[in-house]
Specification:
alpha/beta, Rossmann fold, 6-stranded mixed sheet
Length: about 210
């Protein structure tokens, strides 16, 4: 089967004093999601899963509506900051000199507001393995987060679980993995953003 891992679109900044920060997409994030839907809608897709977090669910909506497929919410695809009280795009934090842009970039810089790294790793791997078991021979799209995608792809490449990742997924980027029922995993592509080329929509790239 083929997994299509999609990072959510650009979200808004949010900080709360009670509960957890769960920001919506920025208007540009909604535009990214619509362009992604056009990009993927020509492919035969059998199922769509999403993290329960708003930015992922809203990114999934245009493709689901276009294909007439119900989105399955999978809690195991949530980001490690699901219980945090603050969210801002990393590139925005870096541009303003806010040191929080480094949170989660390495194990040593793992934020205390995030789920413990080992627990996060185990949750992500278990959730994606469940999807694979339920969809042999099919093509399934998973709308999730940069941390989820980095954890999964890094593990396929044999990186230790406590290493964060080897690249940074861009907004609405597509990463493809072939997954067999015997446990073999093969990365087909990382960070496809052809649908954003030639637009003025942000990609979330960290420069410098």
């Amino acid at each position: 089967m083929e997994l299509i891992l999609v990072r959510h679109g650009l979200p808004v900044r949010q900080e709360v004093t009670q509960g957890s920060a769960d920001p919506d997409l920025d208007p540009r994030g909604h535009s990214q999601a619509r362009r992604l839907a056009e990009f993927l809608s020509s492919e035969p897709i059998d199922a769509i899963y999403s993290s329960p977090m708003a930015r992922a669910r809203q990114t999934a909506t245009p493709l689901a509506e276009k294909l007439g497929i119900d989105v399955v919410v999978e809690p195991g695809l949530a980001e490690s900051d699901r219980d945090g009280t603050f969210y801002a795009p990393y590139e925005e934090l870096k541009a303003s000199g806010d040191p929080r842009w480094r949170d989660g970039m390495t194990a040593a810089e793992w934020s205390p507001d995030h789920e413990p790294l080992e627990e996060f790793h185990e949750r992500v791997m278990s959730a994606i393995d469940r999807v694979i078991r339920h969809h042999p021979g099919q093509r399934v799209v998973l709308f999730c987060h940069s941390g989820v995608i980095c954890r999964y792809t890094s593990t396929i490449l044999g990186h230790p679980w406590d290493e964060i990742g080897f690249y940074y997924p861009l907004y609405t980027s597509v990463s493809r993995v072939l997954a067999s029922q015997n446990g073999k995993r093969t990365i087909l592509s990382l960070n496809e953003i052809a649908h954003l080329r030639g637009t003025d929509l942000p990609t979330g790239a960290l420069h410098g």
